[in-house]
Design brief:
The complex is a heterodimer of chains A (113) and B (112). Chain A has 113 residues and is mainly beta. Helices cover 0% and strands 44% of the residues of chain A. In chain B, the strands form two sheets. In chain B, strands 2, 4, 5, 9, 10 and 11 form a six-stranded mixed sheet that branches. In chain B, a hairpin with a 2-residue loop joins strand 6 and strand 7. Chain B is globular. The chains are: A mainly beta (113), B mainly beta (112).
Chain lengths: 113, 112
């Protein structure tokens, strides 16, 4: 069973607020990812990290930023939330190896009013 | 561009029967394919995978078939159980890089 956690699970905030979505994993995985998913749509990669101090942007442009100061922690920050940021955000992690099985957290459903 | 496509947004089957979920891809460089299952209010959980060097992988009630020439893979669940009701995502990647592409998912409903 995967040990990857996301908080909060649900968040409703007003436009212009700064928010940070937390993601932590206890598996010692080097690689971590953030995906954005709208209902009925595919998951889109918005950020990923190979390890501490490594962050890269994914294929979907996002106004969010990430940091990776510790192996187990990969928070995502929106400096000024807008209604267009309303979505589900999924964090995942994987280890370096022959296969790329990613383990997902439960997700954060964000609603920006 | 959507490189992984699941053209059936939903599928309904009777308990005990076979469920077949389909997935098509356009990028011939994909060499690793996965299926994830997602329950409401939870993140996707890994179900089964297959490497491009194989055409079949089986794990209990779940079997994944890969047809490289047709760029098509399918997930067979037999026998289907009500607890299998979930959204199933197909995913593919190239050479174990970070660019894993997901389909939009198929919602499976297994009726008792």
């Amino acid at each position: 069973e995967a040990d990857i956690y996301q908080t909060p699970r649900y968040l409703v905030i007003g436009t212009g607020k700064k928010i940070t979505l937390e993601c932590s994993q206890t598996m010692g995985h080097d690689k971590m990812y953030w995906y954005q998913q709208d209902p009925g749509m595919e998951l889109h990669l918005i950020h990923y990290s190979y390890g501490v101090n490594s962050t890269e942007k994914g294929d979907l442009s996002s106004e969010s930023t990430v940091s990776r100061i510790r192996t187990e922690h990969f928070p995502l920050t929106l400096e000024s939330a807008r209604p267009s940021h309303t979505s589900q955000y999924l964090c995942a992690s994987s280890s370096f190896g022959a296969t790329d099985t990613q383990y997902f957290g439960p997700g954060t459903r964000l609603t920006v009013l | 561009d959507q490189q992984v496509k699941q053209n059936s947004p939903s599928l309904s089957v009777q308990e005990g029967r076979i469920s077949i979920l389909n997935c098509d891809y356009t990028n011939s460089m994909f060499d690793y394919f996965l299926w994830y299952k997602k329950y409401p209010a939870e993140g996707p959980t890994f179900l089964i995978s297959i490497s491009s060097i194989k055409d079949k992988n089986e794990d209990g009630r779940f079997t994944v078939f890969l047809n490289k020439s047709a760029k098509h893979l399918s997930l067979h669940i037999v026998p289907s159980q009500p607890g299998d009701s979930a959204v199933y995502f197909c995913a593919a990647s190239v050479d174990n890089n970070n660019d894993m592409r997901f389909g939009a998912g198929t919602r499976l409903t297994v009726k008792p």
